[in-house]
Amino acid sequence: MTEKRTPDLDPGEMAAVVEEFNGFYIRLPSIQRHSFTTLSVLHTLARRSPMRLGELTATEQVTQSAITQVVTRLENDGLVERRPDPRDGRAVLVHITPAGAEVVAARYADRVARLAPILQRLSAEERSAIAAALPALRRIAELGESQNEQRGRA
Amino acid sequence: MTEKRTPDLDPGEMAAVVEEFNGFYIRLPSIQRHSFTTLSVLHTLARRSPMRLGELTATEQVTQSAITQVVTRLENDGLVERRPDPRDGRAVLVHITPAGAEVVAARYADRVARLAPILQRLSAEERSAIAAALPALRRIAELGESQNEQRGRA
DNA sequence: GATACTTTAATAAGTTGCTGATACAGTTCC
DNA sequence: GGAACTGTATCAGCAACTTATTAAAGTATC
Question: Is A141–B20 a contact, with Cβ atoms under 8 angstroms apart?
Answer without folding.
Answer: yes
